[in-house]
């Protein structure tokens, strides 16, 4: 049975961010993830995790200026210095929270741009080296370009080939089922083919990104496939609740 992590960026938004940890615990979660913790002191996050007995499943490196349109820095040659600084920031929060993996966002660039591809490879080597020294995995996630137009990493096969080419032992795939369906479909075969390199999974219904089981996929069948494949990582619940978060959790309890 997969271990579900509440995504506190998208769920429990009825509460202030630091109050979402208690809300997630009360709703039955033992793990959390979110996009970015950087608006809070690391100690404040660590205290919430400790007080609620929660495990930190994942968070992202700083993405640049999200409000200004940045969606990560790793493939942006002219932002290399900022990317290097983002690694140090993320590792400070990783130390405080005990997270086991961090997600590196590529940024908006073309995979046909050789300078972007070179920057991306260099960035992944750098972050995997620094994160590995702290016992952390690094995950990269193909994201669909309907939700994120111009995102550099928009193909699962490209991501898998790059992971194989770089051969970095702590570089793994963040398999977001929502993006997989939109980009390629073929979700079960994708899971079977990429199981050896999957470092994190996320789920949301397609196309509305609401609770699993409310879209076009048989999400219960997909979760059973993760069990059958022996996946022992987390499944991040990265969906927008259709109503109050607490009222929409029956789908998860079917797996309890
Ligand atoms: O967009 C997603 O699915 C993610 O998981 C990124 O981390 C945030 O955009
Ligand atoms: Mg995702």
Automatic annotation (TrEMBL):
UniProt-recorded name of the protein: Hydroxypyruvate isomerase
Pfam families xref list: AP_endonuc_2
Gene Ontology terms, MF aspect: isomerase activity
Keyword Isomerase tagged: yes
Family statement: Belongs to the hyi family.
Organism taxonomic ancestry: Bacteria, Pseudomonadati, Pseudomonadota, Alphaproteobacteria, Rhodobacterales
InterPro entries, sorted: HPT_OtnI_isomerases, HyI-like, Sugar_Epim/Isomerase, Xyl_isomerase-like_sf, Xyl_isomerase-like_TIM-brl
Domain Xylose isomerase-like TIM barrel, first and last residues per copy: 21-254
Domain of life: Bacteria
PANTHER family with a match to the protein in the record: HYDROXYPYRUVATE ISOMERASE-RELATED (PTHR43489:SF6), ISOMERASE (PTHR43489)
SUPFAM superfamilies recorded: Xylose isomerase-like
Organism: Thioclava nitratireducens
Keywords: Isomerase
């Amino acid at each position: 049975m997969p271990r579900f992590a509440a995504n506190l960026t998208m769920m429990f938004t009825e509460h202030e961010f630091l109050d979402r940890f208690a809300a997630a615990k009360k709703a039955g979660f033992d793990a959390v993830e979110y996009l970015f913790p950087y608006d809070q002191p690391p100690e404040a996050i660590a205290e919430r995790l400790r007080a609620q007995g929660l495990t930190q499943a994942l968070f992202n490196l700083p993405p640049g200026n999200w409000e200004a349109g940045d969606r990560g820095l790793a493939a942006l040659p002219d932002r290399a210095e900022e990317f290097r600084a983002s690694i140090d920031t993320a590792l400070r929060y990783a130390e405080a929270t005990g997270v086991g993996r961090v997600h590196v966002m590529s940024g908006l660039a073309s995979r046909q741009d050789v300078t972007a591809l070179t920057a991306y490879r260099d960035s992944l080597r750098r972050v995997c080296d620094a994160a590995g020294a702290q016992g952390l995995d690094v995950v990269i996630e193909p994201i669909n370009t309907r939700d994120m137009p111009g995102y550099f990493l928009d193909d699962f096969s490209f991501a898998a080939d790059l992971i194989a080419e770089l051969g970095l032992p702590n570089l793994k795939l963040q398999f977001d089922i929502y993006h997989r369906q939109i980009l390629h479909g073929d979700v079960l075969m994708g899971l079977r083919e990429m199981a050896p390199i999957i470092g994190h999974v996320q789920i949301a219904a397609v196309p509305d990104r609401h609770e699993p089981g409310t879209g076009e996929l048989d999400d219960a069948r997909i979760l059973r496939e993760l069990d059958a494949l022996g996946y022992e990582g987390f499944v991040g619940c990265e969906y927008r609740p259709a109503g109050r978060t607490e009222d929409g959790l029956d789908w998860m309890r079917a797996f309890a």
